[in-house]
Amino acid sequence: MAGHVKDLAKSYQDACHIGEFIRLAYPTESRASYFEELESVMMLLKGTNQEEMIDFCRNTLGKLIEYDQLNQGNLIITLKSYLDYNGNLQQTADNLHLSIAGLRYRMEKIESICKADLKTGAGRFKYQLATAVYFAIQIINKDLTLTDWNLSQ
Does the pTM exceed 0.70? Predict the structure, then answer.
């Protein structure tokens, strides 16, 4: 929210970034958000060395993103939804219109690809941060591709 007229342009840009973030992060549903809900991720990306953030995201999610692209999958969305619902399988399955068995299969696939333990707080935090960074980077650098990420390194 802009407190002064001079801050209106920045407020508008932030609103546009947040709208795009929501569209990318929640493609299966309509969603509204307040700036305060996403402020930390946007500030993190604006105030941090983006190269380091890309490296973190690449190291954490690169194989999953590559798998999705090669197989026309949406495991990154499954992971994000699972994390958004704090690991609650029923809520995640309902959100993604999946059976519990189908969701369990996807989560096992995600954990196998990423070599992740999403049952721990530290594991969830790492992947929650990485997914937030991933979607925010998609907004900031719309032309960034996997080849730019040098996944083979």
Answer: no
d(CA 65, CA 73): 9
Report the distance separating Cα 56 and Cα 60, nearest Å.
6
Residue 149 CA to residue 20 CA, distance in Å, equals: 21
Model pLDDT for residues 33-66, shown as the tens digit of each residue: 556 656 666 666 566 666 677 788 889 999 999 9
Contact of 102 with 47, CB cutoff 8 Å = no
Burial of 77 (0-12, 13-18, 19+ CB in 10 A): buried
What's the alpha-carbon Rg for the chain, to the nearest Å? 16
Q: How far apart are CA 150 and CA 31, in angstroms?
A: 33
Neighbours of 98 (CB within 10 A): 17
Q: How far are the Cα atoms of 19, 29, 112 from residue 77, in angstroms, in the given order?
A: 17, 12, 16
